[in-house]
């Protein structure tokens, strides 16, 4: 056998290894951008009211995605079978999750906000049990017990000042936001897609941005009083076009190339990046109680993300 014949299998394997490495690099970039968006949002909230910031996030992201999908020739009005998932993702995952999260962030630390918001996998297990009577496995019950004990620690008087009602309300808003997202996850698993997620994304963001603008105008007044400067514009560009629309493109293009289990493990990095970035960039301090809660929540989420074992026949 010649040397060239020996190298033939390696030559066939190299493109696949290169494509796999490219996928993981882009998904790592997505996780980093999403995680860093939390301290960026906290900084922007110092100037922009929360509902207007949520409006600007999805309004600018929608424009970018309409252009991107249109240039690629995939822009279509969603067909009737896809409108339920468009409404579900637009109103629950985007409008409710982001609106409630940004309101909460005006009254709580960024580290706590990102961790409570990303308890979604735990609530997905609980909501599938409540809504669809899908009894959790023993491992999923263990995940709920571990993760929810972490939530209890983070929301306890050891970590939160219960004498401040706004602090308690912010924790409730973040948990409601996570539950809203978990319902969407269950809907996504059962939806029969007519168009691709990327083709529907700009419509979902538009559906989120329009009612957010209405709520913002009614509750926070017109946006004319927002002082705009170069720093704020940089934050808005990052939060909307970069951390929302660009990350959605990365997720749609590269997330489908790996298993759901691998994707779940990647998204576990978002709260870790968010917590680390809040410490490094915002000077957040992590208490012993918070670190204990962080370990428990992340452990529960990791258990919840594990693929289910096939039942014996």
List keywords for this structure.
77% helix, mainly alpha, single chain, 313 residues, 12 helices
Q: Would you mind describing this structure in some detail?
A:
This protein is mainly alpha-helical and 313 residues long. It has helices at 3-44, 50-71, 83-105, 110-117, 120-132, 138-154, 165-190, 197-220, 230-254, 260-267, 269-282, 288-305. It is globular. The termini are far apart. The model has no long low-confidence stretch (mean pLDDT 89).
Question: TL;DR?
Answer:
With 313 residues, this protein is mainly α. The chain has helices spanning 3-44, 50-71, 83-105, 110-117, 120-132, 138-154, 165-190, 197-220, 230-254, 260-267, 269-282, 288-305. The chain is globular and about 50 Å long.
The number of helical elements comes to 12
Q: Name the beta content range.
A: under 5%
Share of helical residues: over 70%
- Measured between the Cα atoms of the first and last residue, the distance is 47 Å
Structural class: mainly alpha
| 3D shape | globular
Instruction: Report Rg.
Output: 21 Å
* Main beta-sheet annotation: none
β-strand number: 0
Order of helices and strands: HHHHHHHHHHHH
Query: What is the residue-averaged pLDDT?
Result: 89
Uncertain runs are none
